Amino acid sequence: MSLQVLSVASEVYPIIKTGGLADVAGALPGALKGQGVTMKTLMPGYRDVEAKLGAGRTVAVFDDLLGVEAEVRAVRSGGLDLFVLHAPALYDREGGPYLTALGYDHPDNWHRFAALSLAGARIAEGAIEGYAPDILHAHDWQAALAPVYLAFPKRKKKTVRTVLTIHNLAFQGNFAPTIFGRLGLADEAWSMDGVEFFNNVGFLKGGIYASDRVTTVSPTYAREILTEEGGMGLGGLLRERGEAVCGIVNGIDTGAWNSADDAMLPATYDAATLDRRAVNRTALLEEMGLAPTQGPIVSIVSRLTWQKGLDVVAEIAEAIVEKGASLIVVGTGDAQIEGAFQKLSVAHRDRIGVRIAYDEALSHRVQAGADAILIPSRFEPCGLTQLYGLRYGCIPLVARVGGLADTVIDANYAARQAGCANGIIFDDASPQSILTAIDRLIEIYQTPGPWRAMQTAAMGSDVSWTASAELYANLYRDLMKDDAR
């Protein structure tokens, strides 16, 4: 009999996306089907979501969900079985999932995502007739209170096992203590063994404490967050959880990211027809207004933030093009970093192309046309961009952190001799490390045989969900065994 899992997530691709969380929430249900796991997903009914999905079928009604009226509506879309939390007072507004149209946090985000978590807990406890999940799987701080609602009061019999996945520990959902009384939690939850976190309400902290298992999105990142520096205030609690914490590397949707039949590309190709990639390369240079070049095209598709190390890239961009490379930057983020890249594109029109936008189709064309994808993150839980790069033969240049270190094989002598090198790894997000990596890239790029071998190895990398889905399924089954003891 299939194991039933309720996933609770604040965004789900292709319905709505701001980052990698959506990709994971959207891809994992399909990947788990082959593992005997049926996953349904609860998500908020943002204005854009409901416009895209339609009304659906009402399967549960909450007269008072933390002070608002709400319904749960079942919808099937693109192979996903969704529960959409229809609560106009919380989600029917302009702006994105987390930010207003002016770019500020919605002031009631605590309320919006506490309600999502509570709805998830109530569904797990039987709010939808005929649906009884075995496990609730919460994603990030926005859903992290769901395990808390199931765990408190402690004297309550807990019938559903819980998993919390941390996609990025930097985002913790910490709010003023004044909101605690409005969360509908038992008083005992206001403690170190609950949601209290340095006299604030910590959504993620509470979820880490209350969940039966805590996963993050790569084994290296799972080790990094146990340290004082990488733990961002939660390292001690994570160390206390011991073997309950583990890392499972993300995969990608290899159907959506497939250079052999990607309708967004000027020319499709695979590892056996890599010469056709030149069509995409020429088209990308034209689209970005750059001059033809014999040097490598180095690309960035990312949030333009300090975490991603892109302040450093802006500082050394001129040195990169002086070495003979061209640079393409696509993304949005910190205004100062955006501005720095825009000035560089004006000063070096033929060599630096910048698009300040989130553009899914352009990101496909960049991966298919650029020669390398640069990811100099200061920390990176998993990263998906390097996986897209591998899939498309766009060689990743990555910092030795988190999931980047787990998914890229450095082109050192031994790896190149073995034919398994698929990228270039450098030590940190410092100017010297990045520029040395660029030098290594150019050296290999100028030797066609080794370059083609590295592209072929990259495209042969298994970046699918197959292995990771099996690990998640095993984790779920282990939880059920624990419950049976």
TrEMBL record:
It comes from the Bacteria. ADP-alpha-D-glucose binds at residue 17. Its EC number is 2.4.1.21. One of its GO terms (molecular function) is alpha-1,4-glucan glucosyltransferase (ADP-glucose donor) activity. This is Glycogen synthase. The gene is glgA. InterPro entries: Glyco_trans_1, GS/SS, Starch_synth_cat_dom. It holds the Pfam family Glyco_transf_5. It catalyses: [(1->4)-alpha-D-glucosyl](n) + ADP-alpha-D-glucose = [(1->4)-alpha-D-glucosyl](n+1) + ADP + H(+). It comes from Fulvimarina uroteuthidis.
